[in-house]
């Protein structure tokens, strides 16, 4: 029988109501014990990594999670399941997809409803995740198994704030569907990210949102405060206001790398428009295109790349090497 390790981190799946609101109160062992059907799928053991709501997690916590995955692989498990809060699950999954090279699948899952809710979705999601982690067609990479669908970490995003079918993969679609008959593949499962030689980010990267009439004050404050890198959450295919566009050029001249990502739900940045703040103008200033990575994932990748490499060209190459990237010049 396959051996699967559950790494628990807290989140809604482990939370119950309290006088100050829902907070994690269930240990990983409690989550597994609540799903007796797991016994027919895999031999399951549990390690607690932390006990946090996901919006409280730090990069240090995710580095500890990566180390726990490596330990599990060294122990010979066939797969790893991570129980995690939904708010930042896609970021943690992508982080591990970038830094973990262990030959085991890492399957994240969680819940939109607390463990003591009348219609809690955590037990079903945990069963689905273990089924995926125990499937010998999944041999590496990070995934999110949620609401009967399996998404690759590279593409997945939280598409719905509270409904049980919380996740989607714009552009790519899910890797598989979990049915009553088993795990039905829609494409070959594997890591869809190019690994980076870093485990914990030591760089400070900030996201700058663009929008109607946005000025340059947030960027200037970030530069004055010693930021190491910037991600511009640009409108459309990578455009911003003239004032912010000019400030981006100044930041690049000062040696600060700036990655341009789109704030749109799907699609990629493209160097089309000229004029101040236009996507072609920003590219000519020396910005790094994020392709179709959303700003929050581009922030993780830039932080890890800055931690791993010494030159801006190496950082730029890290973005150009990403698998599945869609860029148009």
TrEMBL record:
The active site is at 12, 86. GO terms for biological process: asparagine metabolic process. InterPro entries: AsnASE_II, Asp/glu_Ase-like_sf, Asparaginase/glutaminase-like, Asparaginase/glutaminase_AS1, Asparaginase/glutaminase_AS2, Asparaginase_C, L-asparaginase_C, L-asparaginase_N. The keyword Transferase applies. Residues 204-319 form the Asparaginase/glutaminase C-terminal domain. Keywords: Hydrolase, Transferase. Residues 9-18 have a biased composition (Polar residues). Residues 1-28 are annotated as: Disordered. It comes from the Archaea. One of its GO terms (molecular function) is asparaginase activity. Residues 4-189 form the L-asparaginase N-terminal domain. Belongs to the asparaginase 1 family. PANTHER family: 60 KDA LYSOPHOSPHOLIPASE, L-ASPARAGINASE. This is L-asparaginase. It comes from Natrarchaeobaculum sulfurireducens.
